[in-house]
């Protein structure tokens, strides 16, 4: 199937671009000896797991279902972190995960012995209280009142027996200078316990495959922890695996006017592109410009009843027509994993663009996918 023959709306993941990202990540692993695992919360397209498994060490999960997904579909190292674990899920989590990271000493007291008895590696998430983000408190694990990680003032070293690693995750779409700043805070607040550890996990949020990312600085950070403390180093990026490696194809259903030209698409920011509203985020659209940059400006809106179901304002070289196909870029990450069926919106199809350019639909959804998720 050719790209232009795909149904809309449709997510399309480019196999060649995914592999390009994986080669960059694998290069970091090869040069430093660090291990990089996929954070499934950003990208969990299992059709890509065999390819990802060729280059990365495994995956990390945010709970039981993601842990099962990695265990079944990738079969390599399987890490998990959750703010708290359920009593009725912990046994299965322990049975399929290699590294189990706890958020607090109370969680350690509750489940550590069970994990150690099963031969699992046990870690503790720490909060270095070092915010390096600006304007995105919703994504900042170090913001005041954060529920993530144990602060140094609450540390209970008498409970560290059996804990072999520390984990922190403070970044979101950031460069390695912010990682370096965070490592300074980690050493300042938790350095006295690092020598007794075997590994450290730098978490995610590293935009390693972005064009301007400073990889040598990242590798210096990795080497620093290895050489100074003898620690094995893990990183768990999600976005970096599929950054700029996916598209979202949609069609114009109708044209409307209310002080501005409006195009109604067969998609929805609310249902199919929720980061547009959460970040907020303006996804790149091929062949378009900023409002007023090109002769014809349109507000692109979705089909739902939510008044704010708007993707954004874009300009074009010529007027839009019903049936025109629009292609958004960088739509592999935090897209498929967040879709929903509000208002009964159908879920988009999912396709792969193979290296030769041909496309293959790997999943289509229908009415039953909407109906069966409700009671």
TrEMBL record:
Domain of life according to the entry: Bacteria
Domain Orn/DAP/Arg decarboxylase 2 C-terminal residue range list: 66-331
Cofactor section: pyridoxal 5'-phosphate
Record-level GO BP terms: lysine biosynthetic process via diaminopimelate; nor-spermidine biosynthetic process; spermidine biosynthetic process
Keywords, ordered alphabetically: Decarboxylase, Lyase, Pyridoxal phosphate, Spermidine biosynthesis
Transmembrane residue ranges: none
Keyword set includes Nuclease: no
Pfam annotation, one family: Orn_DAP_Arg_deC
Keyword Cell membrane: no
Binding-site residues for substrate, renumbered to this chain: 239, 275
Molecular-function annotations in GO: diaminopimelate decarboxylase activity
Protein name: Carboxynorspermidine decarboxylase
């Amino acid at each position: 199937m050719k790209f232009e023959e795909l149904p809309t709306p449709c997510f399309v993941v480019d196999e060649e671009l995914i592999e390009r990202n994986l080669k960059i990540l694998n290069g970091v692993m090869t040069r430093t000896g660090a291990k990089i695992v996929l954070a499934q919360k950003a990208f969990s397209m299992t059709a890509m797991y065999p390819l990802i498994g060729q280059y990365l060490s495994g995956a990390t999960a945010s709970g039981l279902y993601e842990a099962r997904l990695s265990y079944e579909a990738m079969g390599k190292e399987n890490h998990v972190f959750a703010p708290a674990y359920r009593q009725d899920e912990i046994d299965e989590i322990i049975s399929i995960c290699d590294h189990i990271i706890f958020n607090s000493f109370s969680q350690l007291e509750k489940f550590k012995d069970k994990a150690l008895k099963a031969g699992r590696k046990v870690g503790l998430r720490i909060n270095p209280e070092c915010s390096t983000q600006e304007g995105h408190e919703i994504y900042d694990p170090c913001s005041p009142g954060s529920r993530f990680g144990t602060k140094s003032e609450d540390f209970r070293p008498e409970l560290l027996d059996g804990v072999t690693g520390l984990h922190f995750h403070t970044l979101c779409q950031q460069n390695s200078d912010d990682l370096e700043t965070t490592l300074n805070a980690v050493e300042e607040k938790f350095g006295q316990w690092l020598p007794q550890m075997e590994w450290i996990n730098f978490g995610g949020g590293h935009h390693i495959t972005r064009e301007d990312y400073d990889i040598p600085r990242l590798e210096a950070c990795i080497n620093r922890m290895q050489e100074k403390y003898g620690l094995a180093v893990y990183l768990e990026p999600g976005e970096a695996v599929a950054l700029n490696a996916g598209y979202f194809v949609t069609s114009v259903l109708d044209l409307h006017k209310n002080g501005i030209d409006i195009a109604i698409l067969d998609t929805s920011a609310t249902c199919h592109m929720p980061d547009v509203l959460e970040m907020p985020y303006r996804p790149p659209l091929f062949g378009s410009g900023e409002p007023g940059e090109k002769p014809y400006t349109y507000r692109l809106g979705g089909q739902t009843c939510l008044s704010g179901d708007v993707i954004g304002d874009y300009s074009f070289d010529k007027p839009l027509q019903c049936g025109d196909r629009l292609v958004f870029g960088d739509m592999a990450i935090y897209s498929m994993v967040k879709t929903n069926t509000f208002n009964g919106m159908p879920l988009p199809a999912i396709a792969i663009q193979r290296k030769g350019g041909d496309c293959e639909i790997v999943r289509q959804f229908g009415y039953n996918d909407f109906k069966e998720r409700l009671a």
